[in-house]
Amino acid sequence: MYTFLLRNNKTVFVNLDDPIQVEKTGSLNVFTFGIDKANADVMITAVNANPFVEVTFLNTVVHSNLIGLYNANNINAAIAIGKYFGVANEDIKQALESYVPENNRSQLIRRKTNEIILDAYNANPSSIAVAITNFIQLKREGRIMVLGDMFELGKDSINEHKNVVESLLDQEDIMCFFVGKDFYSNKKQSENFHFYNTFDDFVNDFKQHHFQNKIILIKGSRGMALERTLELI
User: Fold this and answer.
1) Taking a C-beta distance cutoff of 8 angstroms, is the pair 123, 130 a contact?
2) Is 73 helix (H, G, I), strand (E, B) or coil?
3) What region does 195 belong to: left with phi over 0, alpha with psi -120 to 50, or beta?
4) What are the residue ranges in the chain where pLDDT is below 70?
5) Which among 76, 137, 173, 180 counts the fewest CB atoms within 10 Å?
6) What is the pTM of this model?
């Protein structure tokens, strides 16, 4: 891709916070963006998420409907593209704030007294790691995770699921429900851990809790169809 862009004298939008992008595009025409990068064409001056992502650029604050710091770079890239094509700051702000995610992608849903972060469209080791990291940093009490198996990982699957489980061992204030055979294969004894080989096994237990005033992350591969959890809350 980089060779094609160079050969055809094209312009590349580059995130200066990504050292690989910076390295690969050193000889290309670039339009850059980055957080607190004074040399960027578009400098992002603040990024927050609790849980919605808020981004500040050129004294303009974007209050998005996207959840998780992992979505900030998507917003930053959109801002940079808008500025490159001469879109006014307020128009960029309005466009980004009007986008509301759907189809089980980073949706915030309210069920009775509970808030649910539904991100059940897909899952892989990197996306589940950033979803967990973001959820951990939320300044909230009553946090619950429902994590479903990650599919199509081949021979690395068991070990990747093990890594996820072990990454949560020190998060004793988060109740974790692990659903699926590969998570179940990495079952560990912990007061806040619950493992289920199948979704049906999970249903029988989860619906007995009658959660109130909780914030719940639901994350798993499409094949797990974890959006069914909403019916239990």
Assistant:
1) no
2) helix
3) beta
4) 104
5) 173
6) 0.79
